[in-house]
Write a structure and sequence with these properties.
- This protein has a domain of about 220 residues.
- The protein is built from 15 helices and 2 strands.
- A hairpin with a 4-residue loop joins strand 1 and strand 2.
- Helix 2 packs parallel to helix 7 and helix 2 packs antiparallel against helix 10.
- The radius of gyration is 22 Å and the shape is globular.
Length: about 350
């Protein structure tokens, strides 16, 4: 028989260091969120508040795209999912008087069906790489053309405005998801962004990430060890598409205007890809940094160039996308973190 000495076995130093670092990181994250939540009460004007709301909205949308893009599934069709969500909520409200909250559910369901119809045969027949990107690109453009073609309901290329529920000086209408105070929208977008970060983190820590990394290396080898290739890809695509549809609903209700050029089509899809790559696809806050960078870039172009030259922003996005892929593939935040890591290791 063995006799207990009263001492526990030594733990793994790496695991102990990881556990000891969780506390300060969690405290720092909570402090940052609390500080961000106090920003609307600093007396900012309507325009700065509008920029903050749009930054959080696009940060959420870019995070939704990166859940799929960072795992080797490069999609140029997320503009379709954004547009389906936006138009579902607006049309159900305008035509049938259904609350945009119900429109959100309907938009997500329709998006899941469309994503399944596109994703399942693509993954089943191993349409990968640039072929898959082309399929999703076609989906984005087809969605835009369908919206334009159904002009009797969607307003065509002119867009459509949701019926207002803020008549008589009302400040908000919860059933209509309409709020006159931008602070309400700020906190709504903040919650959506935090949920998006949480989902990104959970996927990053899940077996799906490891499975998709194995699939991206060699599908046959991944299938030989029991990984459901098509099922794993499809589940991540459905999750990313559903989150993007929610972003479309939020965009439509905040702007109170939807247009096929602003919520669907190639331009919006390219904007998502560029924003994520610019910020850092493989870092949790990379899409958020990309959203802020792209928002400042678009506002700067609007001030310098104005609205007279159409297509300038898309041209610059495409050029910068190529430059980022060549010279800064890890994005802004990824490059900064790599530099700090090398400096710490050098010390």
């Amino acid at each position: 028989m063995t006799r207990s000495t009263g001492h526990s076995l030594p733990s793994d130093p790496a695991a102990a260091a990881a556990r000891s670092g969780r506390g300060p990181k969690a405290l720092l994250a909570a402090t940052a969120v609390a500080a961000l939540g106090a920003v609307p009460w600093l007396g900012l004007g309507d325009y700065p508040m509008h920029l903050l709301v749009m930054a959080l909205l696009w940060a959420y949308v870019y995070t939704s795209w990166s859940i799929m893009g960072r795992l080797g599934l490069v999609s140029f069709g997320h503009g379709a999912f954004l547009g389906i969500g936006a138009y579902s909520a607006v049309l159900l409200w305008n035509l049938f008087g259904l609350s945009p909250w119900l429109g959100l559910v309907a938009g997500v369901l329709v998006t899941l069906v469309v994503a399944f119809v596109i994703g399942y045969p693509s993954f089943r027949f191993r349409i990968v790489g640039h072929y898959f990107a082309l399929v999703t690109l076609a989906l984005s453009e087809v969605t835009r053309l369908v919206i334009v073609g159904l002009r009797d309901w969607t307003g065509g290329s002119l867009g459509v405005t949701p019926r207002t529920a803020l008549s008589g000086g009302a400040a908000m209408s919860l059933p209509a998801m309409q709020f006159a105070d931008k602070r309400v929208w700020f906190y709504l977008m903040l919650v959506a962004w935090l949920i998006g970060l949480l989902i990104w983190h959970r996927v990053d820590r899940s077996m799906a990430r490891l499975a998709l990394q194995a699939i991206s290396e060699d599908e046959d080898a991944a299938a030989s060890i029991g990984i459901g290739v098509a099922r794993t890809k499809l589940s991540v695509m459905l999750l990313s598409a559903a989150m993007t549809a929610v972003g479309g609903v939020l965009h439509a209700q905040y702007q109170l205007y939807v247009n096929p050029e602003t919520v669907s089509g190639i331009a919006v899809s390219l904007q998502m890809v560029f924003g994520v790559i610019a910020g850092g696809m493989f870092v949790l806050l990379g899409p958020t940094v990309g959203a802020m960078f792209l928002l400042m870039l678009s506002e700067g172009l609007r001030i310098v160039v104005g609205n007279d030259l159409h297509g300038v922003d898309t041209t610059i996005y495409g050029l910068l996308l190529v430059l980022f892929i060549i010279f800064m593939p890890n994005g802004i935040l990824g490059t900064v973190m790599s530099a700090l890591r090398r400096r710490r290791q050098g010390r």
